[in-house]
Amino acid sequence: MLHRNASPSSHSEPSTSSKQSNLSLERFLEIAIEPVGQTMYVWGGGWNEEDTGAGVEAVTIGVFDHWASFFEEQDALYDYQNTLYQIHDGLDCSGYVGWAIYNLMQTESGQEGYVMKSSEMAKAFADFWWGSYTPRNAVSDFKPGDIMSNEEHVYIVLGVCEDGSVLLVHASPPGVRICGTDLDQTGTSDAIVLAQQTMAEQYPKWFEKYPSVLSMFRIYIITISFDGIQIHFQTHQKYRRLMLPTL
User: Fold this and answer.
1) What ranges does the record give for the region Disordered, renumbered to this chain (predicted)?
2) Measured distance CA(128)–CA(158) in Å, rounded
3) Is the pTM of this model over 0.70?
């Protein structure tokens, strides 16, 4: 994974245009999966031309139409290293999370964005009083809505399966997708099986090209709890019914 050298722009708390009545954990996760299966990973995607903060797509309400068009143009051999800084064609990990946060906290396009280096996201969002910050060595569990970030990556937790594996959504080559962690490096886990089923059934065009759903990331954490909601599902059936609605 490449390391971003740009510094984030200044950030402030959500504007008064935010939908305060709809700042729920459920809504956050609904937004987070909107780009899944139709948005390629592009290094620099979601950032501005200066590489200092959010670009136009990351401060736009809704999924950018061009992302799906660009996905349709790609084949199974897509290599993100050939599309570096084609910032309008897709999203990178921090661009994706910044876009998701913006679409939760804002109701109008063109306001100040939330894209910054992945290493700074968890602490910055906690400083906005959106949740609590927990260093890596103090993380004891994972809950839906947790934002995990370090110097290399940032992702959003969808839930924890019975074997302890984490179901997550993130922008990681080849694109925005649902993945599962591999606890014992065997190549499978409850979360991986669930991610495979979900991507195959709900995003078949994507899954045909890009069937991999493995993720190894375990990093820093901030618990987003806009309404004080903490949801911790334990079974595959509950995840699929409540967390992963068909788009």
Assistant:
1) 1-21
2) 22
3) yes
